[in-house]
Amino acid sequence: MSLAPRVVLVHRTTEYEELVARHGTHGQAAFFLRSRGRDIEDVAERHRRERGALAEVASSVPLTWRQGRVERGDLDRFLFAPEDVVVVVGQDGLVANVAKYLDGQPVVGINADPRRNPGVLVRHRPGEAGKLIAASVRGGGGVDELTMVEAVADDTQRLVALNEIYLGTAGHQTARYRLGLDGDRGAVEPQASSGVLVGTGTGASGWIRSVWQERGGGGGLELPSATEARLLWFVREAWPSPATGTSMVAGVLGGSGRLSLTVESDRLIAFGDGMERDAVELTWGQTVRVGVARVRLRLVG
Hints:
The strands form 3 sheets. This protein has a 6-stranded mixed β-sheet, with helices on both faces. Strands 7-6-17-14-9-10 form a 6-stranded antiparallel β-sheet. By secondary structure, the protein is an alpha+beta fold. α1 packs across α2 (26-34). It is built from 6 helices and 18 strands. It has helices spanning 15-23, 26-34, 40-59, 92-99, 129-138, 207-214; strands at residues 6-11, 66-71, 85-90, 106-111, 143-146, 149-153, 158-161, 164-168, 175-181, 188-193, 196-199, 231-235, 250-253, 258-263, 267-272, 280-283, 287-292, 297-300.
């Protein structure tokens, strides 16, 4: 007997819930905000909108189907099945948070608060969830396959991200390493910088774009589209010295291109999409290679 389809709803704890958990009661949280010139009702209203959107989406799942829920903080402990349909209810960043744990499952992004969220990745309203979920189970409907970036260490540790991967120190202080490109005749450059950023076309609306703009349009580098198998990489604040260089500070990685970084600090980390707590740790002498990931995020259009 085949199992009924499973829909997994992904959400995050609201600001209101975090405030009440920190201060104990609604009244204490309200007093805390009021003493700082803010009104808790604004936060509570956003909470009601987000929870209302989650309830509306949950009610659109057929009663005979299986349904699961996972909060953002529990994603690293949740097991997604290959046949799942993943429905993200919240902000654009929540899609990026869940992307690294998937392997081809369709993702439906539901914008819980269109007045505040741009809707780049959470493209749909709660009322559209039912038909989108049904179409995803049938294998119909339009799907955009978004390029992702991966980092693979020489000890097989692997990290995947939708927007960007950062390599450097946990405190964003000076990192020391040797940087090179595959196929560049083995040429490497010793560097000291505040880290290396490698981003996708989806990330071109976030952190990678800010660096690109600071460089005056990336020094002639064109930002990739979200579905294009092309990445941009930037070295942040490279420091010239007798032992370190600054000739390799930006570039493009194609489908098979890889950026290679060999650690020359006691400890560096690699993390993706701002999830620093879920980082790959690298020690002196280890090498990590970064490039276009094998897997793509299948985002329902």
